[in-house]
């Protein structure tokens, strides 16, 4: 994802904690696609303007009004995505303003440090309606245009952590084991993205050795039998056999 040595550290250093907080505060209002249509459209327009101000080519895609951004005249090989809608009546600060803030921070840092990057950004809508936006992006943008995706990084609810023992709970019956304390960052991959999980774990260990990061891999297509593993925007990419991880 970052070919030059030390580039990941540079990007990380360019990210402002203050800007992350301000973005979450900006987005964290009830903004469901149909229940709070005006707010949903207002946040989508704000994201469009912010990404366009970075010199990116930005489009509103599909009936879901996904916000898609990339450098002009390039075909992205890597995508970073997060959904910007919320459930009705909920500000959705963690789910999923936290992830949108992180994706936007990456876009800002890369525009400053690596203006020739081939990374695309997509803010999905209607995740809370059954992954409608991400499915529309996979089929209506990537597959329809024949665009290959070498890496897809889906950010989901990354703004909450707890150091209390027993704070991390895992749904029963899953083929995964998690730590008992919810103070870590987890990457979920399947058979098409297990190598991507390994690559991200190695990069995280070299860049932020003090941050607990765990890779969770679902093999042999078992994700099809555990619906809870398919409840975020990585699922349509998995269904299309694209190498996607959920953070």
Oligomer type:
single chain
For the largest beta-sheet, the strand count, sense and barrel status come to: 6 strands, mixed
Instruction: Please give the domain count.
Output: 1
Mean pLDDT over the residues: 94
Q: Helical percent range?
A: 25-40%
Number of beta-strand segments: 8
- Low-pLDDT runs of 5+ residues are none
SS-based class: alpha/beta
Strand content: 15-25%
Rg result: 17 Å
Overall CATH architecture: 3-Layer(aba) Sandwich
How many angstroms separate the termini?
A: 15 Å
CATH topology descriptor: Aminopeptidase
Strand order across the largest sheet: 1-2-4-3-5-8
- Could you spell the SSE succession in H and E letters? HHHEEEHEHEEHEHE
Shape: globular
DSSP summary: helix tally: 7
Relevant CATH superfamily: Zn peptidases
Provide the CATH top-level class. Alpha Beta
Textual characterization of the structure:
With 247 residues, the protein is of the alpha/beta class. The protein has one domain: Zn peptidases (Aminopeptidase, 3-Layer(aba) Sandwich), CATH 3.40.630. Helix content is 36%, strand content 16%. The protein is built from 7 helices and 8 strands, in the order H-H-H-E-E-E-H-E-H-E-E-H-E-H-E. It has helices at residues 7-13, 17-27, 37-52, 93-113, 132-145, 194-207, 235-239; strands at 57-61, 66-70, 78-83, 119-124, 151-154, 185-189, 213-217, 244-246. The protein has a 6-stranded mixed β-sheet with strand order 1-2-4-3-5-8. It has a two-stranded parallel ribbon with strand order 6-7. Helix 2 (17-27) packs across helix 4 (93-113). It is globular. The two termini are 15 Å apart. The relative contact order is 0.15. The mean pLDDT is 94.
